[in-house]
Design a protein that fits this description.
This protein is mainly alpha-helical. About 60% of the residues lie in helices and about 0% in strands. α4 crosses α6.
């Protein structure tokens, strides 16, 4: 279960954990939950804390720095070797935004691989392209949050 914290408000957290617990007991399933537990508030925070203690057998907290996350992504995709000459400016620009999000880094790097083939490769142009990519992804994320909030309001 990825982005667990983005579940619909219509889904009760106790019910969701009950379903997951049922998968592990009845079907002997191994379950991995990927989430940002800092987003739970109020009653959901209490429920999550309580259920986590009773139901989660292993808990791994992953808190990489921007550089560590970037390096992990950059080094694990051969396509990104095309960007080796620009790695420093890419990382520096991402660090300026203080954005710690693997999905955004992948989107930026994928777009840069495509762009770098035929375009002006100056550091300033590259920096602007990185910033545009990051802001675009963040804008789309915000639109999706607003969209689902409006759906919740009308439901």
């Amino acid at each position: 279960f990825d982005d667990f914290e983005r579940k619909s408000k219509d889904i009760d957290l106790n019910d969701l954990f009950g379903f997951i617990t049922n998968l592990t007991i009845e079907f002997k399933s191994k379950v991995v939950i990927i989430l940002n537990d800092d987003v739970f508030e109020g009653e959901e925070k209490k429920i999550f804390s309580n259920v986590k203690e009773k139901s989660v057998s292993k808990f791994l907290k992953y808190e990489p720095s921007i550089k560590e996350l970037f390096e992990t992504i950059f080094e694990n995709d051969e396509e990104y070797r095309k960007l080796d000459d620009y790695k420093e400016i890419i990382l520096k620009t991402i660090e300026e935004t203080q954005e710690l999000n693997a999905r955004i880094y992948i989107q930026v790097l994928d777009n840069l691989v495509e762009w770098i083939k035929n375009q002006d490769k100056s550091d300033e142009v590259l920096r602007c392209l990185i910033l545009v990519n990051i802001n675009f992804v963040l804008f789309i994320d915000l639109l999706l949050v607003l969209f689902f909030h409006v759906l919740d309001v009308f439901n």
